[in-house]
Description:
The chain is mainly β and 123 residues long. The chain has strands at 3-7, 10-12, 18-25, 33-39, 46-51, 58-60, 68-73, 78-83, 92-99, 112-113, 117-121.
Amino acid sequence: QLQLVESGGGLVQPGGSLRLSCAASGFTLDYYAIGWFRQAPGKEREGVSCISSSDGSTYYADSVKGRFTISRDNAKNTVYLQMNSLKPDDTGVYYCAATYHYCSAYVSPYDYWGQGTQVTVSS
């Protein structure tokens, strides 16, 4: 069974940090581009970051550039999202997703999705 499982979410104060993990089972992440998305209440799911399968190129939404870092550890079949200098606007459910194609900020190219992990930034 192909599965993605996110972890690492939680409640953090503004300015704090969290590291999200996306672990795959049933398939190898090496051949997939992995994206992180988030969805705030009442809003559409938006692309946050992506890492390619070919050369490890990374992409970030303008709203998180300089604060978030995506990385992958193929030996552990896991992708990470390091989130620093968190803001209340970063609050939402964070999802990781895998696509056999190129990185995209859009939902439709992604074939596999995790169940999401809640991130709440609040004082």
